[in-house]
Amino acid sequence: MSNKSIIYNSENIPFVKDDLGNQQVFAEVVIDIPHPSLDRIFEYRVPCDLMENIHVGARVLVPFGLKNKQMDGFVLKIKDRCDFASTKIKDIISCFDDDFVLLEELIPIVKWMRGVYHCTYIDAIRCFVPPSARKVKSSRYIETVRLTASFDEAEAFIKSNIRRASAMCKILFLLLENPEMTKEDIFLNTWASPATFKSLQNKGFIEIIKEEHFRIPEVASNLTRSSITLTPQQNEVIERCTEEYNKEKKKPVLIRGVTGSGKTEVYMRIAKRVIDSGKRVIMLVPEIALTPQTVANFKSFFKDDIAVLNSRLSAGERYDEWRRIKNGIAKIVIGARSAIFAPITNLGLVIIDEEHEDSYKSEISPRYNAIDVAQKRCEASNALLILGSATPDIVHYNKACKGEYVKLVMPERIGSGFPDITVCDMKRELELGNKTMFSTPLYNAIKALKNTDDQGILMLNRRGYAEHVSCRKCGFVYKCDHCNVSLTYHQKKGLLKCHHCGYAVYMKDTCPVCGSKYIKVFGRGTQRLEDEIRKYFPEVPFIRMDADTTTAKGAHFKILNAFSEGKYKLLLGTQMVSKGLDFKNVSLVGIIAPDSTLNMPEYKSAERVFRLISQASGRAGRGDKPGKVILQCYNPEHYAIQCAIENDYDKFYFNELRERQQGLYPPFCRIMRIVFSSHNEEDARTEAQNAAQTILALANEENEAGILDVLCQSAPIERLRDRFRWHVIVKFNDDAEYTVHRAADIILDDNNYSKVQASIDFDPVSIL
Question: To bridge 580 with a disulfide, which of 196, 221, 254, 290 should be the other Cys (CB 3.0-4.6 Å)?
């Protein structure tokens, strides 16, 4: 019988190769170099000795270029013919036998991302197979030594070999006291060599069991779960979601549930049903800060069936979590945006909590939206997508209202009801002579915390000490040397920092231009708030959580855990303290200057203000005690603030729709933004103007009325990291999507990368 090896291509058609090598097999490979000029498929021959190892999605080593440099690559397809003369085709060198392969079912999504986000193949692949994870050392293995000999056999060996085999005897002595120990513990007690263990194993005295030990991230739950009785609205939502899950053709489900309505419990109950049906779950949260509490809740319900993925994990932790997911050990994956790329098979459900958050959109290539990727993964796996929020994204809610999504509403809060909101007009406070950061009601409320078990949260959505520093005599403002933005003052180190590029300079006592001493800080950030709390409330223990205090690994977990345990009366910080957090003792929330966002040149600014107030208010009164919210602002009459005070999302939605229709913004159009940046401003401007002309010419050529507007101008932040920026804003409807993508391809192909960098963003969350 001849020796034959059989492999299968992506269409599950077998290729048979006999002893003579008549059948040749070829692989389409993407090289692991993210350069536009190499963004194509390369073909290689699969050698006979690798046929049983090579498969679609495999990571391989190939010779590349004229010098045949060895490069990593990924196999996207296997076939029985090639498009070139087979004599010129190079052979694959080897196949990596590791876990970081690309799942075959994800390859269509890779190709979709490349087309939609105008990135390279490898940019998309690296989302699913992170380079840092592929280079990490393998998991740690623990070897357990177990005594297999009887007591008499071990005593007899020890008596006759105590002098010439003392190391073996020492091991047996230990095992007689404890018949099962780790090899590491035995070594620390005996300093025995590997040969000694091997000798005992060969003699049949011991057996050595090797078990993989996964590095577990520091998010372990300390919650004890008590019996929870679901409310009628929770039961109704769970049943509606289950009904949709059981359908052959599923629609995404949008749950609009007010803060404190019990959405997390709903998520867990639906996930339980999906897991019981034999499927697996991905759960996304918008911020790393929310991960510990989400994991704690899910762990209390699902125990050890959970894996965590976020950017704060060490390379080793990420490697181990990745393996636990890929090998099917973890039934649920929880994490921030990038967790949507987890190598999870048999996917049944994706839950995206706080779906309105901008952090689900990547700001670097590929500029993907995790919600769009989730929808594609669900379509590919026939899984259910659930989007949840107290303040849904306007565009998504519009789709739900039109029937594209299933709309479910949870209008009732569990517990003590909605908190009372007191609005303080800070213009009036200033007229009364109050120049502090605290209105009179907020000052009194913080003072009142002293003699109670209650806690409070203060939210100011600006880090640092002051927004900018300027000279009152000549008007000089400290600005970044590399970006066209003012520097933020950080008092602790006396530094002025750029929050865009990281540039920093020490603040001087005198003006660098006129030499006067009238240098003053303007605006207030969380560091300034910290100083004022220390000044006016020295008896109140507090802790700060913002981007400056959470740089260390595990910082979010430690801060939230300390606050949860009651070690601090006040938690203050930026927007990361305003959403998703659930502390039963928080009765007071102070919201400071949320309306400063209204001054930003962004069409979503009103929506962001409404969300910020609504989400921050929702942190108060989540236990048995009623909550109190004190809102300090300068524009209390604005509709976004009024609707947030009234807790009326529908009213805000219709007001915002009217504004966006007048300005022609989503959901009444879609937006493509192309940013051109260069060290030479004229080059950036010229490329942007040429791109705008290309789009207009293509629209005229194809008689495409769906391109509604094309705007070419200097970007709001004109210079960033020493590069001048111009952008082209294209507004279009869905009918023109093909034409717009075609125009984007032409622009990228014609772009002179040596002078100007071009980046394309569809449906951007910011146009700064």
Answer: 290
Buried b (16+ CB within 10 A) or exposed e, 161-189: eeeebebbbbbbebbeeeeebebeebbee
CA distance 161 to 336: 59
Do 375 and 252 form a contact (C-beta atoms < 8 A)? yes
Q: CA-CA distances (angstroms) from residue 764 to 30, 217, 283, 301, 672?
A: 28, 33, 23, 37, 7
445-449: which pairs have CB atoms within 8 A and are 24 or more residues apart? Answer: 445/588, 445/590, 445/628, 445/630, 446/533, 446/537, 446/540, 446/570, 446/588, 446/590, 447/537, 449/540, 449/569, 449/570, 449/588
Of the candidates 415, 440, 417, 416, the one whose C-alpha atom is nearest the C-alpha of residue 429 is: 440
**Residue 731: CB atoms within 10 Å:** 20
Predicted pLDDT at 214 = 63
Going by C-alpha positions, the residue among 459, 466, 426, 416 that lies closest to residue 624 is 416
In the numeric block, the tokens 């991905």 are attached to 282
Tokens of 145: 């030594």
Q: What is the CA radius of gyration of the chain?
A: 31
Distance CA 221, CA 207 (A): 35
Gap between the Cα atoms of 421 and 641, Å rounded: 11
Q: What is the DSSP string of 620-642?
A: SS-SSSPPEEEEEES-TTSHHHH
User: How many other β-carbons are positioned within 10 Å of the β-carbon of residue 88?
Assistant: 8
User: Residue 114: helix, strand or coil by DSSP?
Assistant: helix
DSSP designation for 588:
E
Beta bridge partners of 672: 730, 762
As given in the structure block, the two tokens for residue 203 are: 């003699």
Least Cα distance to 237 among 207, 283, 270 occurs for 270
Per DSSP, which regions of 472-597 are E strands?
A: 488-490, 495-497, 504-506, 519-522, 542-545, 570-573, 586-592
User: What is the C-alpha to C-alpha distance for residues 552 and 46, in angstroms, rounded to an integer?
Assistant: 46
Whole-angstrom distance, CA of residue 626 vs CA of residue 640: 24
Q: Residue 10 has what pLDDT?
A: 46
Q: Are 169 and 183 in contact (CB under 8 A)?
A: no
- First and final C-alpha spacing in the chain: 70
Q: How far apart are CA 329 and CA 105, in angstroms?
A: 19
By C-alpha distance, which of 754, 760, 736, 691 is closest to 114? 760
Rounded to an integer, what distance in angstroms lies between the CA atom of residue 466 and that of residue 551? 20
Spatial separation of the C-alpha atoms in residues 331 and 190, rounded to whole Å? 41
Spatial contact of 737 and 670, defined as CB atoms under 8 Å apart? yes
- Matching residue, tokens 């913002």: 546
Burial of 69 (0-12, 13-18, 19+ CB in 10 A): exposed
**What pLDDT sits at residue 85?**
63
Distance between CA atoms of residues 614 and 413, nearest Å = 13
For the chain (length 768 residues), average pLDDT per consecutive 10?
Answer: 41 46 82 88 91 90 92 92 74 81 92 94 89 54 84 85 80 85 81 87 89 61 67 96 96 95 94 96 86 81 86 75 87 93 95 94 92 97 97 97 97 84 91 91 93 92 83 88 88 84 86 87 86 93 90 82 91 86 89 86 92 91 85 93 94 96 95 95 94 94 92 93 94 94 91 85 90
CA 456, 459, 464, 466 torsion-angle sign:
negative
Q: Is 260 left (phi over 0), alpha (psi -120 to 50) or beta?
A: left
Q: In what order do the strands lie in the sheet with 406-410?
A: 306-309, 332-335, 280-284, 347-353, 384-389, 253-257, 406-410
Cα–Cα distance, 758 to 742 (Å, whole number): 15
Show the 3-state SS of 323-360.
HHHHCCCCCEEEECHHHHHCCCCCEEEEEEECCCCHHH
Q: 480 — phi, psi (to 5°)?
A: -65, 140
